[in-house]
Amino acid sequence: MITFPNAKINLGLNIVEKRPDGYHNLETIFYPIPLRDALEIVPSSGKSTSVNLAGIEIEDDPENNLVMKAFRLLEKEFELPPIDIFLEKIIPFGAGLGGGSSDASCMLQLLNSQFDLKIQDDELIRYAAKLGADCPFFIKNRPMYATGIGDMLEEVDLSLKGYHFALIKPDIFVSTKEAYSKVKPMKPATNLKEIVKKPVEEWKDLMVNDFERSVFDAHPRIGDIKETLYDRGAVYASMSGSGSSVFGLFKKRDENLSERFRSEYVFQCEL
């Protein structure tokens, strides 16, 4: 059985307050995009479950991969036979796109289907939350207003259908410490749910990502990419999550964008 876990972007990201447990409450809108990994599970010919990775190289023990953690999580409560897991990584990691979280949530759904575990979506969401803050979003996988640490979800009526989408990912790693270094938690003047009701052309002056100040100061190239997208006609551009990817929404496709960003990863599609 095979599935194709998709990425997400953040439309706005406000750090609202610091919690007693050291985490931060935030508000953002998660929006799914059609940039996908490939995930397949097949019965194992051996006695143990294995993970086989392809695509973008991941320098870590496969046992630590979130798809294996998802398998181990359900294995504790259900009698799952050994399987072979094949994961082709296409979604860049360290990009604010949620690729690993998407893989984990899709793994839960695959196992649920393959072995007829009869787990309802609400329960799948609870399992997903144990794997990562944004994993529950990928169970629902439609535009969502997220609060808490990103795990409290409320559906929003939002469609970007017809816009041309461009994603640029420089070869830059942004640490969590860097991202938070200049963030001052504050409740926004206008709720994101209200902002997305307005025309996309108005978002530039209303919708912000609180991580951008810290990240752009530490890595000016990321800020340059955002400005370049606006210079090339984007009606809205932003960093996704804590970076390092930057996306733009265009009225028409920019055929020369890949040439302009020859040294970066570029993904384009129509939403």
Structural summary, described in words:
The protein is an alpha+beta fold and 271 residues long. Helix content is 27%, strand content 28%. It contains 9 helices and 12 strands. Strand 5, helix 1 and strand 6 (83-89) form a beta-alpha-beta unit. The two termini are 26 Å apart. The model has no long low-confidence stretch (mean pLDDT 95).
Order of strands, main sheet, comes to: 1-4-6-5
| Count of individual domains | 2
Uncertain stretches: none
* Average pLDDT number: 95
CATH topology of the largest domain: Ribosomal Protein S5, domain 2
Structural class: alpha+beta
- What is the alpha-carbon Rg in Å? 19 Å
Largest sheet properties: 4 strands, mixed
Number of strands: 12
The CATH architecture term of the largest domain is: 2-Layer Sandwich
Task: Determine the N-to-C terminus distance.
Answer: 26 Å
Q: Regarding CATH, which class of the largest domain?
A: Alpha Beta
The helix-strand sequence is: EEEEEHEHHHEEEHHHHEEHE
Q: What is the count of helical runs?
A: 9
Strand composition percent: 25-35%
In short:
This protein is an alpha+beta fold. It has nine helices and twelve strands. The strands form three sheets. It has a four-stranded mixed sheet with strand order 1-4-6-5, with helices on one face. It has a four-stranded antiparallel sheet with strand order 2-3-7-8. Strands 10-11-9-12 form a four-stranded antiparallel sheet, with helices on one face.
